[in-house]
Amino acid sequence: MWKTVYNWLDERIGLNDLYTNILDRPEPKTSWWNTLGSASMFLFIFQGLTGIFLTVYYTPSPDHAYDSINYIMEGVAFGWLIRGIHHWGATLMVILVFIHMLRVFYTASFKYPRELTWLIGIGLFLTTLGMGFTGYLLPWNQKSFWATTVGTQIAGTVPFLGEFILKALRGGPDLSALTLQRFFSAHIWIIPAILAALIGIHLFLIIKHGESHWPQKED
Amino acid sequence: MSDSHELSRRDFIKVTTGIVGGLIGTIIGLPSIFYLIDPALQEGGKEAWIPIGKFEDMQVGIPYPFSFTRVQVNGWERTASSFGGYAIRKSDSPDELLILNSRCTHLACTVNWSDEAKAYLCPCHDAKFGMEGEVLDGPPPRALDIYEEHRIAEDGTIEIFFKEA
């Protein structure tokens, strides 16, 4: 029964080919350091899932944001677990993506023909930081409020364009309901969309070129 | 793979990945289900005696309207819900009061007593109920609900027993 279903699907989408090319592709002799990219992607997926679950209760409004998160932590079954995973997963993701980047740098894996993979990787690092920055405001507590005040103020020191950037980030001259709403929108729609697209290209390039082998003495 | 000696590295990795993945999936997946359905599992059902009016003010043959508001805590917010109904006095005995819930049995709009029509009319789908709640016309599946329990206080106030859903 399952075999019939599997064969039917395989003939139409080529499951076997997908499996061989994505999960069973030849690898050079590598180490645990080569698993950081997969780990980052795994975290991205988990952040996505727990994030979706959080939006079931979270409300991005100055009146309700703090209370709704309090409710998630204390009122909802396993809310502490879902938010805990999202909270610590975020920190871990920034760390992992950064170490992954260092690994690629030290093993010179960014060289031909993988320059584009590296450039997109930089985009992935920046969007990951963007996720951290926008997500930090959402609990709307003292720490997040003032961290965002400072963060956007720093962006405002850009010569000439500073004031425009500050207003664009905050949705006005000061932190307000607009700031919270646009950070929320950026956090759950705009940046994840960019992130997912970049991950797609990044993965495609990795599968296309295969992993780089570790540099030898003569390299 | 019939003999454990023949378990290859690849199969070992596959099996391990499967087990670890399954474990993580279960540990996160099961709580997630509870997380999502939690509000449906909350115990509600607070009980109270609600005063609806003095017995002496209720006249035989004229439905006596009453309404009250209950505040419920939903999540992090307090929500006020309105309820209402009609008390129908039949005799001098408070025991024979019939207390109707004005929530239409069709789709829960609020019905209103109309003196001209001598009926409770529902503004939503033209349901029509007789004085004692029986269906006269329209789509309702059954007569108006009744507040089953009531009592009279010492000062003549009628109180109904109310249990939150």
Question: Overview of this structure, please?
Answer:
The complex is a heterodimer of chains A (219) and B (165). Chain A has nine helices and no strands. The longest helix of chain A is centred in the last third of the chain and has 33 residues, at 177-209. Chain A is mainly alpha-helical. Chain A has helices spanning 2-13, 15-23, 36-54, 65-74, 79-106, 115-137, 142-155, 162-170, 177-209. Chain A has a single domain (35-209), classed as Up-down Bundle (Cytochrome Bc1 Complex, Chain C). Chain B has 165 residues and is α+β, with helices and mostly antiparallel strands. Chain B has two domains: 4-41; 47-163, Rieske [2Fe-2S] iron-sulphur domain (Rieske Iron-sulfur Protein, 3-layer Sandwich), CATH 2.102.10.10. In chain B, the strands form three sheets. Chain B has a four-stranded antiparallel sheet, with no helix packed on it. Chain B has a three-stranded antiparallel sheet with strand order 1-10-9, with no helix packed on it. In chain B, strands 2-3-4 form a three-stranded antiparallel sheet, with no helix packed on it.
